[in-house]
Amino acid sequence: MPDRPWQGDACSLVDEYRAGRRSPLEELNATLDAISTSQLNAFCHLDVESAQRAAATADTTKPFGGVPIGVKELDSVAGWPDTGASVVFRDRTATHTSTMVSRITRDGGAVPVGQTTSSEFGMVNLTRTTLHGATHNPWRHGTTPGGSSGGSAAAVAGGLVTLATGGDGGGSIRIPAGFTGLVGLKATYGRIPRGPSEPLGNLTTTLGCLARSVRDTARWFDVCSGHEPRDPLSLPRVSGWEAKLGTRETTGLRAIVVRDWGGAHVADACWAVIEEAAAWLAAAAGLRRADTDTSLPRLGMAWSLTGAVMLAWELRDELPGALELLTPEGRAALSYVDRYGAEARGKFEARRVTLNERMASIFSDVDFVITASNPDVAFAAEGPLPTTFGGVEVGVGNNGALTFPANVYGCPAISVPVGVVDGLPVGMQIIAPHYREPYLLDLALRVERERPWTLTALPTAGTAR
């Protein structure tokens, strides 16, 4: 039996299975042992018996056959806790399994180990809840892996599992990926179906994974993408994500490098790393540097308010008693609803229209926007959300300002590891027009091949790719 979980990517783990050098049950047992001794607090629920049964009968001819995965706390699995990462619903149990989890297990052959921690109701880029406490960044204990898919990111970057599910409604895949040195693709809205029985809300949330490699990400979308009737806004299936990696011509495509995307302030040290990587990528991929107006309407409060309205509806039978059970961020969100009322939704839609017009205009002049995934490196695991970035006081609204625009517009964006500052990862975000994920994956693949990143926070000699 291996003494630790596989430290390469998921695709190479499948290769090991098929070559007979490793077995799914051995890998699962190593994973469970590692989780039991981990100090990351990345998992909040384990389903050991079901995982052992799945591993013992795993079909390794499937794309992820026998690969242990983490499932984000906000993704439903029938019979597992359905808490929303909140004490308010700590006794609730899921009655169905989400479409993505069903596909990655049934069609992909992956083995769900358990739930990874999330921020409460997925509201903030900090994974610390009253229900589970703080989750830690494997690159430095005491710092956050981000949120809301923070447990997934910590588990993958921390060497516990090679893959975990994620969701991105305002940056919740890209932000943790950037903080933990992983690949995080937020796809075009509707690429992977939501549901079943899932409210669409403010139409910003997309599903995906936290991964160590570009090919893992591409294979995930090969398995999970495609229309599902219970999500009427889901997109038709597109195949060949992995097979066609690296085949697209990028020479002559236009890119603009933007430090203040979405009105954000990015710390000097982080921007120096990103600017150098962006210049290298433009030269290596033959991109033509462009210049255009990239100003956008500020969206932070408008986006937050629409989420808060949905939260107030979900908690309608629990209030006001549930207020004292929520995290400070949850209580603040509900106070916004009381303060601004139903008109918040109208204001958000007006800003969405303005942003849609601006984004369409920008992408008529450029093919890619290159910016930061986060305004600074990871902050304290216990919070609060920072207001100072690189020594400059900006305000709490700076958190997520870089990622919100792609969610509201519904276009794809990817976070790629490009370096470290003070020993903590820095992610570069590349944004493209709708349906252009394959080009984002190819640009990320070029970075991966020519400027390879560390696959986990604690690399070991001989780690396979």
Brief synopsis:
This protein has 465 residues and is of the alpha/beta class. Helix content is 34%, strand content 14%.
Structure, described:
The protein is an alpha/beta fold. It has a single domain, classed as Amidase signature (AS) enzymes, CATH 3.90.1300. The protein has helices at 10-19, 24-37, 48-56, 99-106, 150-157, 174-180, 214-224, 268-285, 300-314, 328-340, 343-365, 404-409, 437-450, and strands at residues 43-46, 68-72, 111-116, 128-129, 133-134, 163-168, 183-186, 206-211, 254-257, 288-289, 368-372, 388-389, 392-393, 413-421, 424-431. The protein has an 11-stranded mixed β-sheet with strand order 1-3-2-6-8-7-14-15-11-9-10, sandwiched between helices. Mean pLDDT is 94; it is low at 459-465.
Task: Walk me through the topology.
Layout: H1 10-19, H2 24-37, E1 43-46, H3 48-56, E2 68-72, H4 99-106, E3 111-116, E4 128-129, E5 133-134, H5 150-157, E6 163-168, H6 174-180, E7 183-186, E8 206-211, H7 214-224, E9 254-257, H8 268-285, E10 288-289, H9 300-314, H10 328-340, H11 343-365, E11 368-372, E12 388-389, E13 392-393, H12 404-409, E14 413-421, E15 424-431, H13 437-450
Parallel strand pairs: 2-3, 2-6, 9-10, 9-11
Antiparallel strand pairs: 1-3, 4-5, 6-8, 7-8, 7-14, 11-15, 12-13, 14-15
Helix pairs in contact: 2-3, 7-13, 9-10, 9-11
